[in-house]
Amino acid sequence: MTVSWQTIADAVSLGGIYALMAVGIGLVFGVLRLVNFAYGQLIMSGAFALALAAQWNWPVWAGILLCFAVVLALSMLMDRLVFRPLREQSPAVMLVATFAVAFLLQSIALLWFGALGKIASSVAELNTPWVIGGVDIRKISVVAVAVTIACLAALQLLLTRMSVGLHMRAAALDFATSRMLGVRANRVIGSAVLVSGFLAAVVAVLLTVQFPLVTPSFALRDTIVVLAGVVLGGLNRPIAATLGGFTIGFASGFLGGALPTNQSQYLDSFLFAAVILVLLVRPNGLFTRHGGTAQRL
Amino acid sequence: MTGRLPQLAAPAVLVLGTAVLGQVASSATQVYFIEALVSVVIVVGLYIFIGNTGVLSFGHISFVALGAWTAGVLSVPTGEKPAFMPSLFGFLRHTTVGNVPSLLLAAVAGGVFALVVGLPLMRLTGLAAGIATFAVLEITNNILQYYEKIGPGQNTFSAVPETTGVWQAAVGALVAVGAAFVYQRSRFGRMLRAVREDAPAAAAAGISIYRQRLGAFVLSGVVAGFAGGLEVHLLPLSYRDLYLDLTFLTLAMLVIGGVSSLWGAVVGALAISALDSFFASAENGVGIPGGTLTVPSGTRVIVEGVLMALILIVRPSGLTGGREFSLRWLRR
Amino acid sequence: MTLVLRDVRVRYGAVDAVRGLSLEVKPGEIVGLIGPNGAGKSSTLHAIMGAVPVAGGEISLNGSSLRGRRSEDVARAGVALVPEGRRIFAELTVEENLRLGLAARRTPGGVEEAFELFPIVREFRDRQAGALSGGQQQQLAIARALVAKPDVLLLDEPSLGLAPRIVDVVFDALAAVRERGIAVLLVEQRAQRTVALADRSHVLANGELRLTLGPGDANDTEKLVAAYFA
Q: ipTM > 0.95?
């Protein structure tokens, strides 16, 4: 095992990025009871937007704006065309539908950009190191953590201080009663989708700094891992889901960086075996107050 | 039983029709027909579980993969094995079996794996079952990719005798269809459907939900393993071919055809296979009335994805409405 | 702001839960809806709130139809429901529960006024709502509904599971609400107290209106029993 400060910094920053993804997935699950399998493709589309902007020699800020525009537009389209018509269906059907959308988007990207992908060279200088206390730490690691903290703080404010945030929390707890109190269903869902999309765009920017090659399967593996983390943490509790995402990101980054390759190969298997275990024993997640019982029948 | 015979006969007729078409097809296109028939086996296996229990499973392809690995590793002639499977266990390295035994072993492997996986997992339902079975898919793919003592790891299977011809695939499909039909008409199938309709009532009537689901799961594993055996004897396979793409494709076939009926499974598998093959050849330029149609590669997944999403939104019960074939439809 | 139901029908699959119910609630009056279990009382309230589809008839508030509108739109039109079992959000604070009630409010304002009728709620404003007792939660649920300044207040069995002393508090509050000119439709199992409080009480059995009683009939046990078993 080789542990350097860079490894730890990488792990923390990956944990932060995964935490943001977990929140994005958890928010939509809260109001829609829908696990958006296609979340990774949202990030991928943002990354391709950055790649295109780089190709067209746009300034960095313009590329980032394009990234946000594309991701938000795609999120809203997904809500309108897929989530809304399926709202009455069971969570399992919705999972299959988002699975289909995920494949659809990936194929469109394959068609458009080809399998080799494009380079998104946004803010590349963040890969250069700062020297902190005599140790080299890449700037992006610090920036990623700072951005994560800022986003989570802003989100906390939104959820507690603003009425739309309160409505989202109430809708996640009991949608029917919330509506009878006057909470507008479409507005709450739309807000959750927007915030979720915003976070996906942020993640796209952060990830492309470290991984500038954007292919149609960009962020696919990350999404699957984050999904595992969210389930482990607790799907229906936002704080728990975030913790789950961070933990899995940190563990993934730490073990991936510290272990030699031949031992880290089976990381995924341990991860998913843990997911199965948690689903059997504490289906509501590890970080929630009561484990809850699996649907008995 | 005779009243229900059309329900068995209709899918069988479709299978035989496909086989006949495949027999007369040119050697270039014959593989599409064989692929279609193997897809029928996979999708019927998937239907045996999802259709009867109403529980979602993303892990079906891991049984196919295990079957493929079992049949593949044991069918390659001993002399050829070290070329792409250098680190096999001694027993696997020195054993070679014939075609039919390899298929039977593949089926057994699929069934045993399904039993092992099903014992803990059959307590779950709904979203939890979907995620847990997805985890099984991930674990299987991860292990098959890296564990070189049991198979080719990241290499592609080669030197596997290509024994899956049109008629072998057709027989395989008929066996699968027959098994599914017998199962759903049996006591077990009917008990499961009772559970699907009204679980608390079924439990109160003394039906063991867990045991019945496990039975369906194991049977689906047997059929899937068998399909894996057929598949490995047809095309050079790698771990990548038995993962998310195939999961999506077979799920799409079942959903589009109709999740709750055997007829739906067969119709879906053959219809989407036809579509898939058409677009596959269109990607190389196919002759249609009026000229040649060439589509960019990857189009077929887009079409399948759109179709699947559309069906889920507009007609969730699938093309067949989730109903079995009925002679009444012909009389109209 | 009169709530009018005319020949309302509610059907769940093959079962007729409400068959041709007609009633009226005017501002400043309490109309009781009593009857045995499964009579269709809750279904009536859910139909008004748009939570279940209406198979026939008309529901209107001051002339404009409520039928077929979404729950949130009915709430925003000035109809507030205190659901059966209270349905407060246990994980949110008392104050947050009240702020939720503001969602349907048509005039600007805050939650302070709710504390007048139910001072106990102010005491617990920063506590998690789940920590309150059953009676306190019921008061919170009513306060939450009133925060929206509704024209019509619907209550689904507010006295369920409450000690008699707390039922007094709740029914006194309902009398005060009547004073403010709000139209109140009160669904209850406690026939006697409801008949005594309400301006008139309808007895619902098997989805149909069987009998209408006035406050004077409150002590006529025979009449009450006959109405339930008619």
A: no
